[in-house]
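Chain and backbone:
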Amino acid sequence: MFHRLHPPKIQKLAAKGIVTVCVEYQLLQEAKYPAAVFNIKSAVRWMRANADKYGIDPDKIAISGCSAGGQLALLVGLTNGVEAKEGNQGDLGFSSSIQAIVDLDGVVDFMAPLSLNLNRKADSPDVQWLGGTFYEKPEIWKDASPIFWANEKSCPILFVNSGFPRFHAGQDELIGMMKDWKIYTEVHKFDIQLHTFWLFNPWIDPTVNYINDFLIKVFNK
C-alpha cells in the first residue's frame, strides 16, 4: 500500500536507476485475503503490458514490501505460476512472475510459534484479514503463509529486519530451505526496536543501499 511517508525511499531507489512502481492494494476494511494478492499480481501484469512505455525490463521485476506489504511481497513472489493466486483483474495476457523479492520486516509464516503465540483478539488485523483465528481457519492461515509456497524454482530473497523477532517468524526456516535448493538469500538486521525503520533516518539510506546492491547482484550475474 502506498503511504505518504514512503516517497523518500522510493525516490532514492529511482535515483539509482531503478524503475519504481508504487502499488495500492485492498486493505482488510475493503476485502479479505486473498484479494490483495490478486491486486498486486494484476499490477505486475500491468507493468509488463506497459514495459516499453516506462522503460521496464520485463525479465527483471522485483517486488518489495514493508511489514504486511513484506508478507504480501513474499506471497506474490513465491506463488509464481500458481493459477489460484492469479485472480482475473486486468492484463491477463501477461505474466505476473517475479524474479526477486525484498521483504522489510514481513512475516514469513503465520503458523510459526513466534506468530501463533501472540495473544490475538477477534478484531486484530490478521484475524480480520484472514477471516478468523488460526483455530477457526487453519487452512487459510497456512495458505497465506509464504513459506508453504516456496520451492526449488523460487527466486532470490533479501530480508531487512528490525530488532523485533516476531516479524521474522519462519524466516530462518525459509532461508534453510532456500539454501538446500541453492537459491540466494541475503539478510540484514538493524538492532533497533523500531518496526518502521525504512521510513526514518538514519535507516533509509542503508536500506536503499541494501536493496540496490541486492538487485545488482541477482540481476547482473
Residues 7-219 form a domain with the Rossmann fold fold (CATH 3.40.50.1820). The beta strands are 62-66, 100-104, 157-161, 185-189.
